[in-house]
Amino acid sequence: MERLTLVSLLDVIGELFSDEISIAVSNTSEYIYYRPSKRVDLKIRQGDAVKEGTIAHKALMSKQKVSEFIDRDIFGVPYHGMAVPFERNGKLEGCVMAIYPALTEGKSVVTVKTGDGWKPIPFSNVKYLEVKDRKTHVVADGCSGTNKNSLQEFEYLLPRESFVRCHRSFLVNVNHIKEIYPDTHSTFVLAMDNGATIPVSQSYSSYFRKLLGF
Predict the structure, then answer these.
(1) Per-residue pLDDT reduced to its tens digit, 89-147
(2) Rounded CA gap, 186 and 66, in Å?
(3) What is the C-alpha to C-alpha distance for residues 94 and 27, in angstroms, rounded to an integer?
(4) Boundary residue ending a domain (101, 131, 161)
(5) Overall pTM surpassing 0.85 (yes/no)
(6) Which CATH number fits the domain that encloses residue 34?
């Protein structure tokens, strides 16, 4: 079997991620790999220096994982990113960076299709989103409808401090959770303030507990 080069291996790893996510790898001073996404391209080239103020630079300086919003002053476009430094034999070698589009900029509503047309719903009024019959259903105060975006796209679109993925079919607004009940096999059931009950699947349960702090 032919051995994979570092670049081809990173390309293969990149295929495991969404087309929404750009991947960059640096050594301690410059970028050695970059795979742009369809939605955000920071125009990084192999050999470009790691700029001060980027999450890659912050991760290299702190030697810790960094996750934050970066404004457009650095690369010309705003983005959310996560950078994780890596070592070899106890010596800092570089970092890996995942870059997410900052889709929340300038948006504060979800527009849903209803029986009569379309209706914009403020983020704060959205209780949860559910994928059903290959459509994304948005449930809000006194209104519900469908939207063309997938749940994965909504994870980037909606404010992360309020909306949490709890199941492959559900994304919930934590501000509308009334109570959380334990269920079998270390999972949970969410009682929403509109009377709906939503499952937290086993694959999301530890992540969900960590984000909500219980």
Answers:
(1) 889 999 998 887 665 555 688 999 998 899 999 999 999 999 999 899 999 988 899 99
(2) 30
(3) 4
(4) 101
(5) no
(6) 3.30.450.20
